[in-house]
Structures are given as structure tokens and as C-alpha cells.
Amino acid sequence: MSDASYLSLEKLTLAYGDSVAVANLDLDIRKGELIALLGPSGCGKTTTMRAIAGLLAVKSGHVRLDGTDITRVPANKRAVGLMFQSYALFPHLSVYENVAFGLKLKGMRGTELDTKVQSGLKSVGLSTFANRKPAELSGGQQQRVALARSMVMEPKVLLLDEPLSNLDARLRLDMRTELQRVQKETGVTMIFVTHDQAEALALADRIVVMKSGKIEQIGSPEDIYNRPTSSFVADFVGFENIFPLENGKMKTGAGLIDLSGDLSSHLSSGAPSAAGLAWRPRMVTLGTGPFQGTVRGTSFAGDSREYLLDTALGPIKAEVEASQPAHALGDALTFDLPAEKAAPLLRFV
Ligand SMILES: Nc1ncnc2c1ncn2[C@@H]1O[C@H](COP(=O)(O)OP(=O)(O)OP(=O)(O)O)[C@@H](O)[C@H]1O
């Protein structure tokens, strides 16, 4: 086992009956990494987590953890923790008893148990809540109990399935920080599932983007955000203006067109064999350029304003600072898609 493959999924195929949900998936995760599995509903995120946890039989392939093949090891012998989006706390037990539960099952008692539980509660800031019942806690506090309960078991890997999805926007932000802190303090390897790209970008060391049971791209948050390799990932992370390339020209509703700026030198530095180009709305220049559009929609987002333009190329989304003069529905605007700002896509899928 190398450092880069503390947890390895090798050619993992997972199915429900005859229906394959995850196909031939390879993934190596380093010890202490915080990994986000990101992707649309049904792409196989939860299925992959269930297989790592031992809750779903593997059809073919292997799961290795810390040098051991655990593909056929029962869930309770894997040292893999799992935290669900519904925290699944025992309502009749106190916070203390909830956190102690798994340790007691392992036969721990007395001072050792008490020390572990106290330290687990302390690590999530809930020492003074030990005697409360889950119903007497806020959603965020319940989430912390669930986290403490998982962490006291000292798992080699902690899996979190949509851990923040039941929390309101404010609490989600708090819990993001909390999760990150606990992870860095304990050094536990964590994999969390989310379909929220902002959450993945904010939390993860590396993001694994999945599509239809396969990995579409693996990279740092910066890679995924700035350098998506396919149109699917580009679309998923907010590049709204995405076009295929054919012989160095952009294929649009108005046919093949040349871009202004030096596309070839931009591409040769980034991706010489690009299959497409993508621009975020704020990469579109409004007010000057070779193209024409008519404002069909506008939305105000505090610092910025977004315009949806009807154009011969197809619909274009542009974002400008809100301090710029506003345009009205029906206004005709010129715009540019600057070649040097485009993200080159290797695959158009
Ligand atoms: N118990 C099941 N029986 C049959 N098919 C299932 C079962 N659970 C999931 N699937 C199918 O497997 C595929 C992957 O599902 P999975 O739950 O892993 O997706 P996901 O990416 O976690 O989605 P979501 O974000 O909605 O939770 C989907 O096509 C789904 O319909």
C-alpha cells in the first residue's frame, strides 16, 4: 500500500439485481484526505458509499483499506464509520448515551468509556449537553452528536452521506467549518456525498465528480472549478455557455464561427485537442464584441446582475457587476466570448 492508496476501489462494479449502478470504478484515496463525491441524483454516490461501508455486496472488483482487502469483510468489522443525512440518533437515549452506544457494544466500560465519550462531546462542543435528549437539541447540535458518535469509534474512514442537507443555510456553513476542523484535528479520512457543488468546493481536498455510475473527473476544488475537462463537469460547476469545437471553430446555432482573440495559442497552452469551450457568465464581455443579443431575462444577485441573451449562437448567460448600468428586457446588446478566458474541454459529452 502506498500513501496514495490508503483506501482503494479497484474496478468496482455494483448492481441492484441486473441493473448496474456503478461500473468499473477505480479510485485511490490518501490517508487523511477529505474527499467529496459530487454528482447529480442517481449517479451512484450513495451506492459507492454503501459498498465501502459493507452494506452492499460488491458484484466485481475490490475494496482495500489500509493494506487489507475488505471486499468481503462484514460491515461491523471494517473500521468504516457511516453518518447518514438523517442522523439516526436514538431518541430515548441522552446525548451521552448516544455517543457511548457503539463503544458499549464493543464492550467498553468504566473510566475508559467515560473518557472517550467526554472527549468526543468536547471535540464537537457539546460537553454541557450530555444529559439532554436529541429532541431537546437543534438540528445542528443533533448533527454534532452524530459526528461525535461516529468519531469516538475511531474509524479508519468516515463516510458522510449528504451530512448537511437537513440543515438550514446558516447552520450548513457552521457545520462545514465544524466538519473541516474535526477532520483536520483527528486526521481521519473522510468521504462525503453531496450534490451541492459549493459544499464540495468549500470542504474537500479533492472532488470526485460522478456521472451515470462512472467517474467523470477527479481533481482539487480549483481544478474542478476552473479546469473542468468535460462539458458535463463544466455545466455542473456553473459554466453556462458551452460550445463544441470543430476544426478550431466553435459550433453554434449560427454555424461554425471563429472567435476573437488567439484561440490557437490559448488552446495549445491548455488543451491542444479541445473538443469544446466553456465560459462562466462572468467571463462573457457585455457592451463590446462581435456578437449581438437581445435581453430575454435579467436577475439581480446583490453584487451582480445576470442577463439571459437570445443570440444567433444560442442562449448566452452573462454576468456583470451590479454597479454597471442596468439593461432592460428587449435591449439589444453586443457581447464577446473572449477566447483567452474560455475553459478548454477535452470531452464533449
Ligand atoms: N435499492 C435499490 N434498488 C434498485 N436500484 C437502486 C437502489 N438504490 C439505488 N438504485 C439505483 O442505482 C442508481 C444509483 O443510485 P444512488 O442512490 O447511488 O445515486 P446517488 O448518486 O446517491 O443519488 P442521490 O443524490 O439522489 O442520492 C440509480 O439509478 C438508482 O435508481
UniProtKB/TrEMBL annotation:
Location in the cell: Cell inner membrane
Membrane topology summary: Peripheral membrane protein
InterPro entries: AAA+_ATPase, ABC_SmlMolc_Importer, ABC_transporter-like_ATP-bd, ABC_transporter-like_CS, P-loop_NTPase
GO molecular function: ABC-type transporter activity; ATP binding; ATP hydrolysis activity
ABC transporter domain ranges (all copies): 7-237
Keyword Transmembrane helix belongs to the record: no
Any Pfam family: ABC_tran
Keywords for the protein's UniProt record, in alphabetical order: ATP-binding, Nucleotide-binding, Transport
Source organism, top-level taxon: Bacteria
SMART domains recorded: AAA
GO cellular component, one term: ATP-binding cassette (ABC) transporter complex
PANTHER family: SPERMIDINE/PUTRESCINE IMPORT ATP-BINDING PROTEIN POTA, SPERMIDINE_PUTRESCINE IMPORT ATP-BINDING PROTEIN POTA
Family: Belongs to the ABC transporter superfamily.
Protein name, as recorded: Iron(III)-transport ATP-binding protein SfuC
Source organism per UniProt: Neorhizobium galegae bv. orientalis str. HAMBI 540
Lineage: Bacteria, Pseudomonadati, Pseudomonadota, Alphaproteobacteria, Hyphomicrobiales
Gene name of the encoded protein: sfuC
